[in-house]
Amino acid sequence: MEQGMTGRGRPGRPKPDHDIDLYSTPVGTRAVENPVRRAILAALRERERTFEEIVALAGRAKSTVSVHLQEMAAAGVVGSRADPEDSRRKIFFLAGDLIANVSPEERVADALAAYAGAYRPESGDPFAFYKLAFRTIRVSLLQEGVLLDPLLSRAGERIGKELYPAVADPDTGAFCTKIARFWEGHRLGRVEVAETEPPVLLVYDCFECADLPVTGRPACAFDSGILRALFSRHYGRPAAAVETRCYSTGFDHCRFEVVPEGGSGS
After folding, report:
1. Which stretches of sequence are listed as region Disordered (predicted)?
2. Who's near 123: CB < 8 A, 6+ residues apart?
3. Which domain holds residue 256?
């Protein structure tokens, strides 16, 4: 379960304009629209909680919270176990994965034709078509108010775990250099290593977001997931890769701060 930087889902309370959260569960995808339930699930993405904690966070009567938990458990979104310190109490945890947020207020107006028009088959860039496809899918979803950041983040983590042996190095500086070479060699962007302890990486011409519309929010959930997995393996403990700048927030580069659990790396 989510404890700090490990487990299922990602920390963070829902914003009011995120009308629906989509969760994958062992029995299928579940849409959660009720604001109280969304707040409960957001709290469980941070860590496991007792019933009393959930009641305090929800600000609702115990009977109301109990009904919400029972129905979400029946839907496969929430699970529970006995408290080892008091068998009369239950500890609740997130049993599903947050995969997307849907909100009409998050829709962006952006012409998909601009992306296709910028594509030049004769350019000789073998990656150009795949960048076009990826960005067109992202913008198509943004036009409908669908934010797939949670799913993209987990997909990035899976890739990062597979990629790690190809760039592994016990020295953090050398490790960052190998990551930069991989990024550039695969046309993912040009990486500058601004700092190494803790690492700060600047990505120019980012494949994930360089041509996306400015939305005011970081867009590189996929890259963040890859970097999170890479540096977690490097440090031997969970690490966050926090995007503090992005093309989609109006900058000419993306900036990632790597934060190992418990402080800076060795």
Report:
1. 1-20
2. none
3. 150-260
